[in-house]
Amino acid sequence: MQSYLTRSFGERSLGWRPAVMMPALVGVAALLISASSPPTPAPHVIVLRSQSSAGIHGTATLTPLGSKTKVTIVLAYDPPGAQHPAHIHPGTCADFNIVPRYPIETVIDGRSTTIVQAPLADLIGHGLVLEIHSSKYHVNIIAACGTLE
Q1: pLDDT digit string (tens) for 62-92?
Q2: Which of 17, 40, 105, 112 has the most crowded CB, counting CB atoms within 10 A?
Q3: What is the CA radius of gyration of the chain?
Q4: Concatenated DSSP letters for the chain?
């Protein structure tokens, strides 16, 4: 009895060759999976501008982590040993709600990393600012601020 492959391709039977076919099938499956996966959003960088005579400024990098966001703050011209409370507030740098929406880990020696319990899409473009306070004793003085847009 003649196989389908022999009938279709003449005298030479291609037969089933798992060693040859499996890598090709795995490759096709990988392409299909990667094509259907949504792209991972890129980190979003916020410029933190000085709001006082201290001249402290820097950046906050917001990295999406699914339903959460990692906020990494790096300040320049921050004195060694300085500690700055930080929060995400509704409003603008000039006029913000004093009740924070999201707490941020205290910035120590110009660095802070926090996992915020909100996706990046809920933080960007929703009238929020990242405030870096002068110190825990002077939270009414803002050292640096950036708009989350």
Answers
A1: 999 999 999 999 999 998 999 999 999 999 9
A2: 112
A3: 27
A4: ---HHHHHHTTS-----HHHHHHHHHHHHHHHHHHHSPPPPPPEEEEEEE-STT--EEEEEEEEETTEEEEEEEEESPPTT-EEEEEEEEB-SSSB-SS-SEEEEEEETTEEEEEESS-HHHHTTSSEEEEEES-TT-TTSEEEEEE--
Which pLDDT band holds residue 15 (cuts at 50, 70, 90)? low
**How many CB atoms are located within 10 Å of the residue 7 CB?**
9
Domain architecture of the chain: domains with CATH: 4-36 (no CATH), 44-147 (2.60.40.200)
Percent helix, percent strand, percent coil in the chain, to nearest 5? 20, 40, 40
At 34 the pLDDT is 52
**Pick from 70, 47, 63: nearest CA to 116:** 70
- Return the half-sphere exposure (C-beta side, CA atoms, 13 A cut-off) of residue 122: 14
pTM as predicted? 0.73
Going by their DSSP bridges, the two strands 102-108 and 83-90 should be labelled as: antiparallel
